[in-house]
Amino acid sequence: MNHRSLDPKAFTHPGDVSDTANSIAALLQYLPQALEQLQAGITALYEQNAIRLDDRPEGTVSEKDIADQVLAVISGLKDAREDVARAHESIRRATSPLSHMGGHWEDAEDGE
User: Could you tell me the pTM of the whole model?
Assistant: First the structure.
């Protein structure tokens, strides 16, 4: 998508923009669920005592150190969910008017 749309002329009709915006809106709609699943995954791993930190020498990491890092991950994922929800609301405001846009009829260009 990024390479295809570098040239604004890649969109030949308003429907092309609308289709792309709707695809992005769908992605944003379901992304919070994926972020929630990541949170559930890191929480389960923490509860299973299956996390180690590799940024400190072995034996110097406390349970609190791990808990603090897990909480940082959960906080970041929560913020990301909120940001994605705002982005989804914003793009929905764009897709609504896009759904009523179309290109000119070919015969209208001919003056008919």
Answer: 0.77
